[in-house]
Amino acid sequence: MEVMVNADNGKILAWEIRQARSFMERLVGVFSGGVPFGSALYIHRCATVNTLFMNEPVDVLYLNDKREIVWIDHHVQPGAIVRKRKGAVSVVKLPAGTVWATDTRVGQVVDFKASNEQIDMGVV
Length: 124
Description:
mainly beta, 2 helices
């Protein structure tokens, strides 16, 4: 099992990661209703998001091909359509407040680590 980590400060962004690579996986992600606490929806080949069928606000990280954060949207409300972010090739939807709680910033890198690796458990 993997966790999503801010590689620059070692803080966990999510313990449970749902990945959406195909159209069907993205569609399921859209209709999931939200992103539960401690989880993330990682959407491949994507530079924009919507929250049309979500129940709660989300934080959104926009990543380049090296998983470096090129843009962050905080507390995107349900029903929003966010414009394309330059340089983004994938996005991560997180529960609102996660970015602030983990001191995550543009320029930092998102990484995946096995849950048994040495990581900072004092977040979110």
